[in-house]
């Protein structure tokens, strides 16, 4: 299996997933691709000696024995995670189906010990190339009378670093530009996603509030100035219109948990709290601009929006 998976599965699957992440339509059908990816990332779920499942509140710790798999599949974790971040930033997270996908990814990567394994793999890859020849020279020097050519004293990190580099270079080439999952660029994307999540939570709550004030039988979209069919005859409704306030509760739950998981993975503390505080204003600003039916193109405030503005001035 260790020989077959990298040779016959890993490369083709990686290229396929990378293409899908960049070109698949931004709709709920992406869930099939997402689950394929997440299944590959978690072989411990299918191992014969797998542990008893943990509770939802206490997910089981990923055993250290899976560290070699994580390291030898580093790009499947890191580069595709960054690809997912870029994709998630372009989706409508008010939709419960999109919110669920963000939640699923965050939950998988937040499994105890997994982030540390990924970070260790990145450190091995970024280890200076000049270190390896020196260590190999020590490894293959002539033995003493009491030693052997396979003396175990050189550190194992050399072999692990070589395997990680071989994995990355075989998939991306020697001149690849690697963006660390725990580097500043990716962390900036995570903070942007956290900001988008917070805004989506505010928007979902606004829609829920509008629905509570609407007469029975009115849809969510009718209060935003749209009907289920636009002027071209195409359907414009989304999950919220189909599922009602139940959908808003699901969206809020998924996004709230996703925020917590992202905080755990990247060890955000004050940054995320400050971000959410700043987005309270952004969420309020979005709520002001809910328009009356038929007046969306003129950017007029709804009665609720006018009351909110009056209350904040």
TrEMBL record:
GO terms for cellular component: membrane. It is a single-pass membrane protein. Keywords: Membrane, Transmembrane, Transmembrane helix. It is found in: Membrane. The keyword Repeat does not apply. One of its GO terms (molecular function) is sphingomyelin phosphodiesterase D activity. It holds the Pfam family mit_SMPDase. This is Sphingomyelin phosphodiesterase 4. The lineage of its organism: Eukaryota, Metazoa, Chordata, Craniata, Vertebrata. The keyword Amino-acid biosynthesis does not apply. It comes from Homo sapiens.
């Amino acid at each position: 299996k260790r020989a077959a998976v990298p040779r016959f599965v890993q490369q083709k699957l990686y290229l396929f997933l990378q293409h899908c992440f960049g070109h698949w339509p931004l709709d709920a059908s992406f869930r099939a691709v997402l689950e394929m990816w997440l299944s590959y990332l978690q072989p411990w779920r299918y191992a014969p000696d797998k542990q008893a499942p943990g509770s939802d509140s206490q997910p089981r710790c990923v055993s250290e024995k899976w560290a070699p798999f994580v390291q030898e599949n580093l790009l499947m974790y890191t580069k595709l995670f960054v690809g997912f971040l870029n994709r998630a930033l372009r989706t409508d997270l008010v939709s419960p189906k999109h919110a669920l996908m963000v939640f699923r990814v965050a939950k998988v990567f937040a499994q105890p010990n997994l982030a540390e394994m990924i970070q260790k793999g990145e450190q091995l890859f970024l280890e200076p190339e000049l270190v390896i020849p020196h260590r190999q020279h020590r490894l293959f020097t002539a033995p003493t009378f009491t030693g052997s050519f396979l003396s175990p004293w050189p550190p194992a990190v050399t072999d692990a670093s070589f395997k990680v580099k071989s994995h990355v270079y075989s998939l991306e080439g020697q001149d690849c530009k690697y963006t660390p999952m725990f580097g500043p660029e990716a962390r900036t994307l995570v903070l942007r996603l956290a900001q988008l999540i917070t805004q989506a939570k505010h928007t979902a709550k606004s829609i829920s509030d509008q629905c509570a004030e609407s007469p029975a039988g009115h849809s969510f979209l009718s209060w935003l100035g749209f009907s289920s069919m636009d002027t071209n005859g195409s359907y414009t409704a989304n999950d919220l219109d189909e599922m009602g306030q139940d959908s808003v509760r699901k969206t809020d739950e998924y996004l709230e948990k996703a925020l917590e998981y992202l905080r755990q993975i990247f060890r955000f503390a004050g940054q995320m709290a400050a971000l959410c505080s700043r987005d309270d204003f952004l969420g309020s600003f979005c709520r002001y601009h809910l328009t009356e039916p038929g007046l969306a193109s003129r950017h007029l405030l709804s009665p609720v929006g006018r009351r909110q503005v009056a209350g904040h001035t």
